[in-house]
Every structure is written in C-alpha cells, then in structure tokens.
Write a structure and sequence with these properties.
globular; ten-stranded antiparallel sheet; 200 residues; alpha+beta
C-alpha cells in the first residue's frame, strides 16, 4: 500500500518534464497545444523499512498539448499487494495543464538538452485524476520556476490518504518527498503521519 501515493506523485511530477522536453521547438501555447509527446522511464521505490524489499518498474506519460495520460507499472507488485491496492494493470490516469509559462531558463535548458532543468525552470500548474485496483485519487501540482510542489488525495475501500509532495534534484535523479496522513475510512482518530522519499 505504500507505493500507491508514490505512484500518484510520480505521474504528477513527470508531466511538466515530459511536456517541455518534447515541445522544445515551441514557445507559444497555441503551438504547444498541437504537439504530441510520449515519454517512458524507470522508477525505483526503496524499501519502506530496514531489510524490506524495494519495488521497480516504469512509467509513461503521453498526450498532446495541455492534456495527457499516464500509466505506472510495477511488475510483480500484484503478488505482494492486496488486489484492492494494486493489480497488474497498474495505475492509470489523466491530467491537464491549466497554465504554462516558458521562461528564458526553460529555453536555455532545452537548447542544451537538459530536460530536467527545463522542468524546474518552467512555470506551470495543473490537475490530475487516477485509479488503480479499487481506489481512485485526485491531485494538483504547480511550479513557480523554483519549487515543484503539489497535493493529493486517495480514496480507497479501506483507507483514506491526503498529503503534499515536493520534487527536487538529487544528482542525476529526481527525489520526491511526500508528507501525508492516512487512516482507515471513518476512523480519523487512527490517523498516522508519514514521510516517504522515492527516486526517479
């Protein structure tokens, strides 16, 4: 169940990265709206406890302009998790960029093929919806040109999750830090605060 919120955040974060990386020749939103993109990469979720096992897989983001779809697959995770939490179909979702503001640093990053830099230097915000197994979720994200942050909520048949995330550079990787609360449905008095980090 730990990877549910992680998957959600991964999808959010990679949205801006992908859209700008593939739209490197476009400076106008009207042009950007007509550019298709498709990006796939690996994800690694470290163990949540000492001597625990990690999870690995891939994510894909694909769309056109401001509207996008995403999928996240963790092969083998369906054998370790409840079918209420994860199945082999993985996580699937849709999203929308509400606004986009290409900066000078966006352009210079794209010119030097620094897609990660382009993501962090571009101002944007948007929303997303997703589902996996028996749960659904929603969220929002924004980047002011320096900080990429967001919020998310997950409603499951047994538990409820709500929290925030922050994305930062970590060498050649991206680090996603999540702070969230989860509790059994209808039992907020049993809420637990959790901080987790994953890498892409």
């Amino acid at each position: 169940m730990n990877f549910k919120k992680i998957l959600l955040i991964i999808a959010v974060l990679m949205l801006g990265f992908l859209a700008y990386g593939t739209a490197s020749g476009s400076l106008e939103e009207t042009v950007f709206s007509n550019i298709p993109y498709n990006y796939t990469s690996h994800v690694w979720i470290p163990p949540s406890q000492q001597n625990g096992s990690s999870l690995g897989g891939f994510y894909s983001i694909y769309g056109k302009g401001e509207d996008f779809n995403f999928t996240i697959r963790l092969p083998g995770a369906e054998t370790k998790e409840s079918p209420l939490d994860y199945t082999k179909e993985g996580l699937n979702g849709t999203g929308h960029l509400n606004s986009i503001d290409i900066t000078y640093n966006t352009i210079t990053s794209l010119y030097s093929h620094d897609l990660k830099g382009a993501m962090f230097n571009t101002k944007f915000n948007g929303t997303f919806n997703m589902s996996c197994a028996a749960w659904t979720g929603t969220g929002s994200f924004s980047n002011n040109g320096q900080n990429l942050t967001g919020k998310f909520k997950i409603n499951g048949p047994m538990t409820y999750w709500t929290g925030t995330f922050n994305v930062k550079e970590d060498g050649t990787r991206l680090k996603l830090q999540m702070d969230y609360v989860f509790y059994p449905n209808n039992s907020p008095q049993k809420a637990k605060n959790v901080r987790e980090v994953i890498y892409m």
